[in-house]
UniProtKB/TrEMBL annotation, chains A, B:
It comes from Pontibaca methylaminivorans. Its cofactor is Mg(2+). GO terms for cellular component: cytosol. This is Molybdopterin molybdenumtransferase. Catalyzes the insertion of molybdate into adenylated molybdopterin with the concomitant release of AMP.
Length: 396, 396
């Protein structure tokens, strides 16, 4: 058995960043920026008013001063002339400051009668001007790689960037194997169950930014598996579920080997999820996950998620564990790293009593995997312990 | 000015859960379950082996015992006959237990010679059987409303649910207004800037589960605004950006009123984001956000996100603030609730020095809004303070 860290390092070596493609800005959120971008202009592009009020010369901003209002500067329609002593220009938030102006008196501190404006209150020391380039200068950089957030999209828009180079989405073929499986909506025989891991992994992969594709269920024959691998053509990553164990009925390894897999087989010192098959199969990376419902999903979080990050051009990154306080004591852990389904709430983490790897109901109720290192000693309630968040849901 | 809580309550009254639609299971992740679902079958549907090994009668599980191997039970292919005393059936993980069996001896504790199997080690007390229905019984419920996670999708699959009733995605029309705006990729005039908020909000709304649609930029004329409102037809929510302030150039309120808006106008005691317009406009809710880049995005997090939750059928839910320790002291807050762009890392929160609401660069670097209640006293470094997470990115 090899430690989780070692298995992860070997899996990481199977994948490399994918090439870039260009998408319109409106489709770029959540995608990973593939190369540095530079602002096509400064923001603001001119000295701009931060408030509604009157633009005047800086030295004239004193209570009681009176001005002749000579024009108006609105957003999109600046005042073209210069501004002299004793003159004011009515100005609105975001509008260009007239040449010569150095102060914006806010509306609330003024009174206008006809074309005469009087400062009626102490205008204070803030000039209420956003200098040109105070948000960013022309040429300012947004650095890759970076998963673009909604705020980034707004920033790129304001830099006048309409098309964005992003890493292509990883194409992941997901293959369930086993004579016992039927698809949801089908009528299972008495010895059959419904394929569920492939659907869960499909959803997880899509959330990670990949482009997953479910292949038809492969039967437990070399012929059926061979056909399945053929339909995986074009994938960057092939994920099989089931048949990665050592039982007599595990044909996936054999079929993959015949299909060109340079195979590595790991018994990983982890619970759930011990058996793992991996290698390169032509242009694709291949990972064989255990068929156990929860094992497959846990391996998805622990192994597939960081592999997708690498394919997306993000760094080789082992997800940092977060810390929470144990709600209940835990007995000593055995020799395998244990990923316990748990709920984190208000900084406290509580592992479920039932940790059998067949229980999807328990996984569905969990929002975290509490991580016990190998041979972790007994832990008391209130101790701090590491966990991996597995659900975005907050109060959903 | 009204407090943020009051503004939020009034906005919440403008929206109600949308009707349900049915989507295939493979498209259901991230959607909100619209009504309770019941399992079409139990899982496992039969007593199943939890290990690879041999099924025997429960009372015969003792070291040294010998058995005649009479057949095999594999996943998908059970052993049809009953199992008598002194008999064993080779069995694999997930396979149905033969009638009469009450124990699975794991492979590692056995030896087989021809058709004779001997238990070579203490088989222990765990019977290695997953009883029928131990994950869930037929008829077990998944309760609505619930935003479906990948684990939920796996669970629904195993319940043999192929089609899922989910709340329809809220259709949100996003309208930027102002003569100063051009679209990204266009060539701005000297007094113009690039529309950015609409792009940022579009990305945010999509992440929240809505179906946003960008309308063409409306110019500062009643005619242009009227045309824009016409193209918003069919939206559940119309979000305008800009023109919600009190300046002379704010025509949006007037145009919306002519278009049937039962208008409410709030000056909300918050920073950034003070002016807010809202009401019902025909079948749609309408919210007018301030045009300031950061104000619009902050209002998106504070107001639009929970409104989308309600439209999706989730509860009226004010996002719980999380707590972190202040990295640096903060001076007393004024009369308005202050949402400060900040970075949370390792349980510590640090507000940016520059909080001007025009700075998108600062928003893009933030992963949280540190929340200062009105009149919050000065805070010392190390004190615990509330924040709203605004980015899913973890180490991205």
């Amino acid at each position: 058995m090899i430690p989780v860290e070692e298995a992860r390092a070997q899996l990481f070596d199977l994948v490399a960043p994918l090439p870039a493609e260009t998408v319109p800005l409106i489709e770029a959120s959540g995608r990973v920026l593939a190369r540095d971008l530079r602002a096509n202009r400064a923001q603001p592009p001119f000295d701009a008013s931060a408030m509604d009020g009157y633009a005047i010369r800086a030295e004239e901003a004193v209570r009681g001063a009176m001005f002749k209002v000579i024009g108006e500067s609105a957003a999109g329609h600046g005042f073209s002339g210069p501004l002299g002593a004793g003159q004011a220009v009515r100005i609105f938030t975001g509008a260009p400051l007239p040449a010569g102006a150095g102060f914006v008196v806010i509306q609330e501190d003024t009174q206008q009668n006809g074309d005469v404006m009087t400062i009626t209150a102490d205008p204070g020391t803030s000039h209420n001007i956003r200098p040109a380039g105070s948000d960013f200068a022309a040429g300012a950089t947004v650095s890759a790689p970076r998963r673009l957030t909604p705020a980034d999209i707004a920033l790129l828009a304001s830099m006048n960037i309409a098309d964005v180079p992003v890493t292509r989405r990883p194409r992941v073929a997901v293959l369930s194997t086993g004579d016992e499986l039927v698809m949801p909506g089908e009528d299972p025989g008495p010895d059959q169950i419904i394929a569920s891991n492939s659907f869960g992994l499909h959803a997880m992969l899509r959330e990670l930014g990949a482009e997953p594709r479910l292949l038809p269920i492969a039967r437990d024959t070399l012929q059926s598996l061979r056909e399945a691998f053929e339909t995986a053509e074009g994938a960057d990553l092939v994920v099989t579920i089931g048949g990665a164990s050592v039982g007599d009925h595990d044909l996936v390894g054999e079929a993959a080997a015949r299909f060109g897999l340079e195979r590595a087989f790991y018994k990983v010192a982890m619970r759930p999820g011990k058996p793992l098959m991996a290698g390169r199969m032509g242009a694709a990376a291949m990972v064989g996950l255990p068929g156990n419902p929860v094992s497959a999903m846990v391996c998805g979080h622990v192994f597939l998620a960081p592999m997708i990050r690498i394919l997306l051009g993000l760094d080789r990154h082992v997800p940092d564990l977060r810390q929470a306080f144990l709600a209940e004591a835990l007995s000593a852990n055995g020799p395998r790293e244990h990923y316990m389904r748990a709920v984190v709430r208000n900084g406290e983490v509580r592992a479920f009593d039932r940790q059998d790897s067949a229980l999807l109901t328990v996984l569905s109720q969990a929002n975290a995997l509490l991580v016990r290192p190998p041979h972790d000693p007994p832990r008391r309630a209130g101790e701090s312990i590491g966990y991996l968040p597995i659900s975005r849901a907050e109060g959903d």
